[in-house]
Amino acid sequence: MSTDALDLTNLPLFDHHCHGVLTNDVDRAEFEGLISESSRPATDGTTRFDSQVGFQVRAHCAPILGLEPFAAPDDYLARRRELGADEVNRRLLRAANIAVYGIETGHDAGRINGPADMAELGDASHCEIVRLERLAEQVAERVRDAPGASAAQLVDEIERTLDARLEHAVGVKTIAAYRIGFDFDDARPGRSAVESSAARLLETEGPLRLDDPTLIRHLIWLAIDRACVIQVHVGYGDDDVDLHRCNPLLLTRLLRASVDSGARFTLLHCYPFHREAGYLADVFPHVYFDIGLAINYTGSRSEAVIAESLELAPFGKILFSSDAFGAAELYYLGTLLFRRGLTAALARFAELDGWPLAEQQRVARMIGYENAARVYGFDPLAQNGAA
Amino acid sequence: MSTDALDLTNLPLFDHHCHGVLTNDVDRAEFEGLISESSRPATDGTTRFDSQVGFQVRAHCAPILGLEPFAAPDDYLARRRELGADEVNRRLLRAANIAVYGIETGHDAGRINGPADMAELGDASHCEIVRLERLAEQVAERVRDAPGASAAQLVDEIERTLDARLEHAVGVKTIAAYRIGFDFDDARPGRSAVESSAARLLETEGPLRLDDPTLIRHLIWLAIDRACVIQVHVGYGDDDVDLHRCNPLLLTRLLRASVDSGARFTLLHCYPFHREAGYLADVFPHVYFDIGLAINYTGSRSEAVIAESLELAPFGKILFSSDAFGAAELYYLGTLLFRRGLTAALARFAELDGWPLAEQQRVARMIGYENAARVYGFDPLAQNGAA
Amino acid sequence: MSTDALDLTNLPLFDHHCHGVLTNDVDRAEFEGLISESSRPATDGTTRFDSQVGFQVRAHCAPILGLEPFAAPDDYLARRRELGADEVNRRLLRAANIAVYGIETGHDAGRINGPADMAELGDASHCEIVRLERLAEQVAERVRDAPGASAAQLVDEIERTLDARLEHAVGVKTIAAYRIGFDFDDARPGRSAVESSAARLLETEGPLRLDDPTLIRHLIWLAIDRACVIQVHVGYGDDDVDLHRCNPLLLTRLLRASVDSGARFTLLHCYPFHREAGYLADVFPHVYFDIGLAINYTGSRSEAVIAESLELAPFGKILFSSDAFGAAELYYLGTLLFRRGLTAALARFAELDGWPLAEQQRVARMIGYENAARVYGFDPLAQNGAA
């Protein structure tokens, strides 16, 4: 800390929202699917490698795998298979240098590894976040198969299961954005309405996909009543989302209604509504946000998006996440681009307004690690005496 | 004007929308409240000083009070009390170097000083803007207490009082954004609907808070009919606002309906909808805008926001305001950051496109002073032979 | 390609959406009208020259006409008349150095020249895009005048005429943004509803202005069924548009419904929703976008807007257009600013992430020319053996 230039290479990072990685080798089509939010293959005549994130993979991950920067996509995939998924994952996750993985376990869990395996691969601590909608779907599938199951039982069992999961998990997540949008009634639904919706769910055949507004609102209010940290998918995602209905400002009334509950909301990704998220984090004491997967997917432009996230929100309300899923490249790039973009932004503030180096470092530690440790009440670095 | 580098240190500024300052000393909690738009204290574990505006106070106001830059918050507050509110106000307002204060007198007037006192403290000229909703509330409280008061009397008295105030005031302001949002019917309400709303208002007990859409629309149309300059709070504000209902584009039909009325609309703040405001200022001849309080609250990032405000809108349609309230720091920082950000933007345009220095200066004078002087019909510098 | 600095001066450009130029001389008021999207003259006390695009004309077009940069507006207009419209058009269009004009012929065609004349003036190839609403209006005006015309005949005749036009045109355009906004029902309307709307259209007297949602949706679905390239006006335009109803995200359901149709959507302009457009181009394989007229009208700031357009969207989904109409200055400035802004953005990416020069050039060619050539199936440079 005696030099003048800010260096965040070893800034401790609490990746408060990410998923596991694939442990099997992938072919080019699968890999292109992993580096895109679209549920569809690239348009004829194009490749997913010709994108900001694709160029980042070639620029920065290729050397980690022992290739020259900007290796051709096919060469990159060949090298990936040559090393094998385990070695690739290990190299990229170690390079990511993440202190804590906050693993959200509700998305496509069958394809990827679990929290403990992630932590081992990445030589890191971990904690778990429970996806509310997946929990309800799993409980409903179980209850449905029991003889004489009632809606009341389902409602009770969801609550019991949530309580059990919260004995270990540090928070919950909702994907209301994908399922119902944010233009929902903010009031806590009554028991009878919840049971009616639960009854309909039990009558559904086949794999369940929860998209009932009453039940989703009920899940959110269960979490509010438990003073949980509630991760909310906001903004940018795949083509399943109606993005205009996922503007975080549509949550304003729910946030107002829950401001004194003890619950805290961590708004994820938020692009292209990250300025709106910064406003909410400013005016509501229980709102936090990150720009999550937007960092990876804007690539060389992420420095601008990161800078835009540092406007209205107090520095104690901004978090870091990679939102990485499946490909170990996304953890590495998420941290690389975050460290770089935050460094550039803080250096610019120092240049303009003389921010002392110690203050730059303090703000970086808050955003990179300490805010999440405080919000989630999980601070392994402090427990290790290292923070 | 013989050097090549643009210097806006002494650019005359017409701060067309601001308020008074507190004349008493404040403790840390009060001061933190003044440097935030939130109605709530900072979250546990955080302070309002750890924000863009907090860092600006420490960076630039501390030296004005005789401290080192980035003095600790408690030292800053101690020094503030040591000097006393009057000296602090005088130093910071003189440093702000504002030529004209356009004081909006309808917000929390009991806590702050009045226009004439502000002008004396800042060694500046001043003019007044009347807040429509406050005027109506004050009239209604008075009429309500008179024996046999009728709704018709209230409607008439609002109009008479407005006319009386407009003999001195240069414009009006509406906070429809806070009270009803912008998704209201743009048509002029009829007399009977207005009287029905007025009757309901008279039946209300206790302090009045006008949030009746008919009456608020009526007030706006009274101002349109009088060809007033109408300041409109737009976008970012405190947690009382539903920000998604304050997008200025929602005013499009009202603007279209009033385009030939002689009234002019000055859209205030507008963040994060400042590009949308720039569009409206481009296509509607009677629309102007500023980025007001967004400059202070984005701090080191204000240069980016200022640059974004210089896109679609013709240079004759952009205004300056600090929207400062209560803390003299906000006037000083508002002018410092505006001068700096405008200088940087114009210098970049010169670098890219060869804008001559005289043209840079001319555009700066328009935005800083001349546009407001023309729109409000108030030009004390010209009257003094100094502009 | 042996130097290190990217040079896009001679990058081939496919201007996939533009119009013709005026062939007569214009006075100052007319010229000010051409360099603004507003339907109204500049506000008293201001001029359209005091704007980003006005400064661009003085900075870069004045020298093409043999004047010093930043010539006074009146001197510029005088010189323009002295040279004559034909010489001015020829100089500016040659300087624009456009390879292909994609001319949309449905806007104010009586005032401007046609595609073949444009191509001759600009020494370029050309192709045509048909405006759906104008086509329907023209057919309806013709059918209406025929004795015993029926709604069914009108519906059939629109379809026949569209098919005939598509024998030559490379795509269609819709101005649903202006006429009905994007918050329309995405379903294909039934024949009887279409005929009812057609009947109402036939009963209208005087010049027709199609603003019937059913008919406009019908036109769009006709184009989807024909697997057309469909240009969609999105975002920023004149004061006739309700901009908040032209957010491209409002098209999400229509895009979802048409994803496997073979049709492709090219979203035009998109400002200030260009990030939203980039998201759609990322997740939907049949969506493309440009930032069109926003480049000209943000002038010195266009480099920022261009950079923002290079975030989420794969590089194979971004297009170039000038959206120039009437004034030859707008073609020249559109290409100048696009080449410059793209160069700056790619150079920055190279600086940050080591993009090789060949990759910068490849991405530039895709965006400037090749994406449009592939999407529209029109590639005269390849046919000439020059691409």
Verbal overview:
The structure is a homotrimer of 387-residue chains. Chain A is built from 17 helices and 7 strands. Chain A is α/β, with parallel strands linked by helices. Chain A starts with 13 loop residues before the first strand and ends with a helix. The A-B interface holds A 247, 249-250, 252-253, 256, 259, 275-276, 279, 282-286, 307-308, 310-317, 348-349, 352-356, 359, 363, 366, 374 and B 36-43, 45-48, 50-52, 54-56, 59-60, 69-70, 236, 238-239, 242-244, 271-272, 297-301, 303-305, 340.
List the helices and strands and how they pair.
Three copies of one chain form a homotrimer.
Chain A: E1 14-18, H1 28-34, H2 52-64, H3 73-83, H4 85-96, E2 100-104, H5 115-122, E3 125-131, H6 132-145, H7 151-166, E4 171-174, H8 176-179, H9 191-203, H10 213-225, E5 229-234, H11 252-257, E6 264-269, H12 274-283, E7 287-289, H13 292-298, H14 302-308, H15 328-353, H16 357-376, H17 380-383
Parallel strand pairs in A: 1-2, 2-3, 3-4, 4-5, 5-6, 6-7
